[in-house]
Specification:
75 residues; mainly alpha; 1 helix; flat
Length: 75
């Protein structure tokens, strides 16, 4: 009984190691010629950076009081 259980466990281990592994090959096919990564692509000018609008705080500068006059236009 113990021997058959050990044999079944070893068989499962061998099957998992041999069947469930997938080889990952890093090599590709034959690449002919020189590798040029920028063929037809020219560097472009960077996009202009937009400045975010100035925030409108709910509290006056330097105090802890809250102003209760916010509108939909304030965001």
């Amino acid at each position: 009984m113990k021997k058959s259980r050990m044999l079944a466990a070893m068989l499962c281990a061998v099957l998992m190691v041999g069947v469930l592994t997938v080889p990952a090959y890093a090599g590709g096919g034959d690449e002919g010629g020189e590798y040029v990564p920028w063929v037809g692509l020219e560097p472009v000018e960077p996009l202009p950076v937009e400045q975010p609008p100035d925030p409108k705080p709910f509290t006056p500068e330097g105090t802890g009081t809250v102003l209760d006059n916010a509108t939909d236009q304030d965001g």
